Amino acid sequence: MIVAGIMSGTSADGIDVALVRIWDDKDEFPRLRLLVHEGFPYAKPLRQAVLAAMNAKSTSTAELARLNWRLGQAYAEAVKTTLERHPLNPGTKLNLIGCHGQTLYHQAARQKYAGAKFACTWQAGEAAILAGELGVPVVSNFRPADMVAGGQGAPLVSLLDLVLFRHAKRGRVLQNIGGIANLTAIPPAAKADQVLAFDTGPASMVIDALMLELYGRTMDAGGAVAATGRILDDVLNQSLRHRFFRQRPPKATGREEFGREFAAKFLASCQKASKRKEDAVATATALTAASIADAYQRFAAEKMKGAPVDYIVSGGGARNGTLMRLLAERLESSNCSVTTIDSFGMPAEAKEAAAFALLAWQTWHHRPGNVPAATGASRPAILGQVTYV
Q1: Of 110, 112, 120, nearest to 143 (Cα)?
Q2: Rounded distance, CA 331 to CA 352, Å?
Q3: Which residue, 53, 85, 324, 331, is the most exposed by fewest CB within 10 angstroms?
Q4: What is the DSSP pairing of strand 14-23 with strand 196-202?
Q5: Angle between helix 205-215 and 277-295 (nearest 10)
Q6: Average pLDDT value for residue range 328-353
Q7: Residues 205, 102, 378, 139: is their CA dihedral positive or negative?
Q8: pLDDT one-digit tens code per residue, 280-295
Q9: In terms of DSSP bridges, do strands 96-113 and 2-8 run parallel, antiparallel, or are they unpaired?
């Protein structure tokens, strides 16, 4: 099947589309080959609407309904444009779409509401628009089925990591650095139940918030601003005491813990310690690198049993040279070779979109898509909801 995977992450910077060929070769897992990838930045009004809705203290039902439909339109436009730029070979056609949607709220831990205690999640983006505009079925809303099975609903990229990257003799860590950072640790010759995966904390989310506040820019391209700043060690060390970093996996997080409120407090602490704007950005970048390295060393390193480890980075953070340098420095003592996923034949920005193409294929064939060892679910679960044409 030719499957389009669509991803728009917690950084809320835009949409990634991956066209993937997937086939069953009667092994434990299917086979997958990336055909093309395209990225589409959100138009400014749409990004503002997404950011305003994420973990919002108050909004209106009209705003949320309109955003849900507008995102569906944006996803459909992105897939159409990808197919126009990269026409499929004669005799082949798009068979299926897997759309993660835009996370507006993710509460992995059970909390009390209206007389009951539960976890919950919400991804926006109307799948019926995609199905109607493209004329193919759509699998969407992947997280709830894992959460109902007792999982965190994240990370869900672990199946792709296993399919593409497990190695007989080397350990592999697949580190995604988007808005939130997550890793999948795959020991040498691992089975699915030996995989460890979890969110490590903020990735570009805090950096981007500070760049917008201090410089009026959406990101620190290449880590150029951070490279000129000084890391404020006291602020960094205090931030690393956040309870999420100490929590054992499985665990997942989002803007609820590291969004605008966290960023505002972090910036205030930086400004007390230094009046230089670049120092705040440098410290936020160091927070991302330190929390990732600490998570690996604290929770995952022992699973590698002394084997050499390829530490493979994907997501927009892979393009941040300062962040990559800081991460490599912190992992140097752990027998880790830090590189980007591009070295393994997949663009850094394409991986999560490709993962949701694979998960859609699994659902279409009535196969589980979660890795319980990664999400903490009590059982494998068939993920998502199918919207037919």
Answers
A1: 120
A2: 24
A3: 85
A4: unpaired
A5: 180
A6: 92
A7: negative
A8: 999 999 999 999 999 9
A9: parallel
The pLDDT value given to residue 183: 94
Alpha-carbon 10 to chain mean position: 7
Residue-wise pLDDT for 122-173, tens only, equals 999 999 999 999 999 999 999 999 999 999 998 899 999 999 999 999 999 9
As a whole number of angstroms, the distance between CA 337 and CA 121 comes to 35
Q: Taking the chain, what is the end-to-end CA distance rounded to the nearest angstrom? A: 17
CA–CA separation, 77 vs 253, rounded Å?
A: 29
The count of other CB atoms within 10 Å of the CB of residue 208 is 23
pTM for the whole structure: 0.85
**Residue 227 contacts residue 281 (beta carbons within 8 Å):** no
The CA–CA distances, whole Å, from 291 to 63, 75, 327 equal: 35, 32, 9
Is 252 a residue whose pLDDT tops 90?
no
| Beta carbons of 317 and 203 less than 8 angstroms apart | yes
Residue 389 makes CB contacts below 8 A (sequence gap 6+) with: 131, 132, 135, 136, 137
Structure tokens belonging to residue 11: 């950084």
| Angle (CA) 106 95 158, round 5° | 40
Mean pLDDT, rounded, for 232-257? 94
Do the Cβ atoms of 33 and 20 come closer than 8 Å? Answer: yes
